[in-house]
Every structure is written in structure tokens, then in C-alpha cells.
Known about the structure:
five-stranded parallel beta sheet, 4 helices, alpha/beta, Rossmann fold
Amino acid sequence: MARTILVPHDGSPHAQDALEYVLETFPRAEIVLFHAIDPFDLTDQPERSPLTERWLDDRREDTAELFDEALADLEMGDATVDTETAVGSPGQTIVAAVDDVGADQIVVGTRGRGNVAKARVGSTAELVVRRADVPVTVVR
């Protein structure tokens, strides 16, 4: 039986490290590359009105590009990679996605795009570790 691993990705180097770790460590896994569209994060697109259909369509296009960049030039081996997206607060949305995709495990990077440079484990990763009902691996 293949293992299904949820890998949250926000475009950060830490998230990319987590994806590469999964591909190397679980070469036959079913990987779900996941992105939470955070409706409260408007820093990278201040010109777009939040929570409109146009805004959501634009964010989904951005997410498709994020996935393409994350998967470019990676050696996939026998792993299968699906992509999923949901709208909501990243930590909570990641935890909820476990049931939606049937994940057996989560592999997450230590820090994302946040500005907390001194944090050892990012707030999203910490929330996921505390609330997930499946094993969580934090990749440094």
C-alpha cells in the first residue's frame, strides 16, 4: 500500500527542501503538493481586491506557477505527485487537508515566507505539529 504524504508549499526554500526530502526518502509515495491560499496575506498583491472572484482566480494562477516551479527539474522516480489548493489560514487549512486527501503523513519546512527570522520553527509548522492527527516531519 502506497503512503500518501501531504507536502505544504508556499514557494519558500524551506518548503522546497521538504518536497525534495520526501522525493528522496519516500521514492514510491503518493505526494500531494498543497498550497493554502491565505486570504489575509495581501502583502504580495496589494493592487488586487481581496476575496473577489478575480482575486481568487489570480491566486489560483499564482499557485499553478508555484507548483510548476517547485516541480521543475526534480527527479520524481516512482513517486506520483498531485496538487491541491484550499483557501484559508495556512496552518488550519493544512491540518484540514489531511482528511480531504487521505494523507498518512505531513512533511513541512521549518519556516515559510514569514518575517520571523529568529524563529526555529515557523508558526505554521508549529500549529501543524500541534494539531495534526497524523505524523508530521519538520525538515530543516
